Each structure stands twice: as structure tokens, then as C-alpha cells.
Amino acid sequence: MTGQSSPAATAAAMISMVGVEKWYGDFKALTDIDLSVRTGEKIVLCGPSGSGKSTLIRCINHLEAYQKGEIRVDGILLGDSARTIDAIRREVGMVFQQFNLFPHMTVLENCMLAPMRSLRASKAEAEATARKLLARVKILEQADKYPAQLSGGQQQRVAIARALCMQPKVMLFDEPTSALDPEMVKEVLDTMIGLAEEGMTMICVTHEMGFARQVADRVIFMASGAIVEEAPPAEFFTRPRHERTRAFLGEILRTH
Amino acid sequence: MNYKLDFTPVLDGLPSLLTACLGTFALAIGGMILAIIIGIGGVMLRDSKIAPIRWFIKSFVEVIRNTPFLVQIYFIYFALPLAGLRLDPTPTAIIALGINGGAYAIEIIRGGVQSISRGQIEAGLALGLHKTQVFRLIVLKPALRAIFPSLTSQFVLLTLTTSIASAISAYELTSVAQQIETSSFRSFEVYGVVTVFYLVISWLMMRAFGMISTRYFSYPVK
Asked: Does the residue B3 lie in any domain?
């Protein structure tokens, strides 16, 4: 953990968002988002529901289109062409709230699919990578099971391994523990902490403030589609500057 | 009732009736293969970026589902030669059955595709797969699983619809039965036996689809 809060120069950033705006029809979902994430940096994104935090990370891999501003990932400008979108998606892994494992494939097949089809890896290569990463999320023994045969926590760890099989430079987590039973949250967070310790660049939308304290270089608070406040966790939790941040923290720390 | 049952003509014709069942199977299986290709292709093209393709698929489905099969098969049989395409009755019947079954298959498979959660598609896209790869590798199998019972009954119906191909004298069970009936006047006996044959054919089809289902769609779901 570096604990540094000053954003690096845009050129050296793994992800840079400049003046990004997004509308759903007349509704402005993101307002003037400026965000720069250095290689290896860990960002926790929080805020009330509907504040735009999921929308923000979904813009980074173009699951949502944005209408104004600029997003760069590893130097590649995210435009509307299928080629740049594909190039960026191959570098950016994503983990979803609902796991979204493919039900008709075994755990191993889930992990091998994209490397074989998207990176043109050979079957043997893809399988070796998949087994290595399944071992890393401690679920290799379930490799031949189908998603429906696993618990939520196990499924989410497989989803993390599946994303890692693409050897991404960035990992996006969209409320990865929100759909889990409480007793399974820890196994998923531990996996994410392990990943953070290995130096992965991560943006996590989560309300797990313990995780934010332990792992984040910066915590970003959003409300109404805009970034309200960002600070290293020590500062964010002890001296929030904005009234809305204080109100949010009051809510969330009471219920957690 | 003083009608005397006489099964002799039917028994004499039994070998040709049994062989004709193969013709029925050929029409049914050919029609189904074409229907599934049209069904899957149609579902993909139905959401095409190119508007005229979308309109074509939608009109195709509407026209086929709202006109009688007998008219469709006559149309293909008599109208196509005017356009310079002359086909034998059996290929014509397979094309007609495939087109007709395909229109229904588009609507059925579309229902299955719509039942797949947006999250599945997003997970595929986020992994760097193209839209068509997402459809083919991620959406299609669970979608077919979801609608397989409806598809099965549609295809059993298609199998029975092969009898209408007798109208253009394609080689199949009903046309052979008609020949025996015309030469013997034993309508009741002939169609009685043919009814039993169709029952057995339907049952075999359902068994076959049941086996396909266990073979391909038996992965566990919550």
C-alpha cells in the first residue's frame, strides 16, 4: 500500500477518465467524471444506490457507452469502434454482483472459454492457466463441477479466476459481495485482498468498508452521478470533508 | 353395422407402407434440420443492425404463421417453376416444411433467448468475446434448453404435417396410403393402420428428442 493520494500524470495512468458524462435519455447518470488510476493502484468506489458508481466502472469496459469526455485504458482511447472496445475488454477483467458464470459449462470450461476464443490460446495452454488460477482462488477441486453445484462464495471466486485467465491489467469489481450470504463474504474478500497484494490495478464498487480500510489507496465517494470526495482511507473515514460523505458513512458504518 | 372389415389390401401393402414411413422420416428430419437453421439464423438476424433484414425476418414470420401450410407447399411447388426453379416433390416438401417450421422455430427460440439474463451476455462481452460468439457460445445452449419442450412439440407437429406433402405427391406415408385406398376402396382399414403408424412415428420422435435433451441439456441448474 502506497497511501499516496496524488493522481499520477495522465500519461502514466492505467485508467484515465477526463470529463466523462453519460446520459440515459434525459437523465444524466455521470457528471464530469475525472479519474486517474495508476498501475497497481486500488480504488474503492462507494456511494448511495443510484449514485452512478456501477455506471462509472461499466463505462471503463464499454458495457455502457458514454457521451462526452475521454476514457483511456493503458493508453488506448476507448472509442466506439469494435476494435478498440475489444482491445480494452481483453485488458480489463470484470466481476459482477450476480457472478454470471455460464451455467452450461463446468468451472474449468468457464475459465477456458474466453482465452481460447478471444486470445486464441490452445486448449492445453488455456487449461493450464485455468487450473493455476483456480488453485490460486482455492477452488481447483471443484473444476469439473457446474456453477449450480457451488455456493455463492465459490461461484464468485470462480468468476474472479475466470476474469484473471485473460491476464488482465485491470480488474473491476461491481459489488462482488452484495449478493452473498454473510458467511461467504470473507472468502471472496480474502481472494480480492490476495489479488491486491500481488499488485493488480483494481477498482472496486463495494460497501465493505473494512476492505476499503485494508486495501484501498484511495476511497472515492460518489453521489448523484458525480465524484464528491476522494481521499486515502485513513483520511476518508476519520475526516470526511463533505456533509453527504459524513451522512453516508454514518449510515453505512451503523449498519455494518 | 354391416361393413365387413377386410385387411387383405392393407396387409398386401404393408411392405410399401413401412417403406413409406422412411419417406416420412426423411421429410421430417430434413424439414427439422432446415427449420432449426432458419430458427437460429432468424433469431440472430431479427436483431440485426440493418433494418431491412429485421423487417424481412419479421414479415417472414408473420406471413408463414398466418397462411395455411397447404397453400405454402402449393405455392412453392407451382410458383417456383415459374421463376425457373423446378424441384422434385420431395425436396420441395422438405423446403416447405423447413420454411414453415423455421418461422415457428424463430418465435420459440426467441422466447428462449429472451429468458437469458442480461448478465450472461455482459459477462461474455466483458471477457472480450464478440456479440456473435456470445450468442453462439453463451446464450444459445441455455436458451434452447429453456424452450426445448416447446420445440419438441413443434417438431412433432412438423412430423405429422409431412402428410400434407401428399398433396404434391411427395413420397411419404399418406400418399402411399392414398394409392392403396384408391385401388382397394378399403379406406377405414388403410387409414386405421396409417393412424397407428403415425402414432408410433410421433412417439419415436418424442423419444429421440428426450434423448437429445438428456444428452445435451442435463447440466444442473438452480
From this structure: no
